[in-house]
């Protein structure tokens, strides 16, 4: 039983796992920035009559949303992994 836990811990800390987690953060931030810039330009023209102000606000809000969504994905994944381990 102890050997299975050690093997699982070692698999979680592999460099490939770290790289895939970093790529996930980058893709979430990238998507957030793209959608933020698009909506920022739209609402910037409508609300501020200045697309550049809206674009800056949209990118910053999109980055925050991207990071938040990635952290929620990681949290849900950890919780599901823990519940799977408890079932075994």
Task: Set down the secondary structure blueprint.
Layout: H1 2-12, H2 15-48, H3 51-87
Please give the number of β-strands: 0
Strand percentage, roughly?
Answer: under 5%
**Coarse morphology:** elongated
Encode the helix/strand succession as letters. HHH
Largest sheet, strands/sense/barrel: none
Structural class: mainly alpha
The percent range for helix content is over 70%
Note the gap between the termini: 11 Å
Total number of helices: 3
Give the low-pLDDT segments: none
Average the pLDDT over all residues and give the rounded result: 78
Radius of gyration: 19 Å
Structural notes for this entry:
By secondary structure, this protein is an all-alpha fold. The protein contains 3 helices and no strands. Helix 2 (15-48) runs antiparallel to helix 3 (51-87). The longest helix is centred in the last third of the chain and has 37 residues, at 51-87. 12% of the residues are buried.
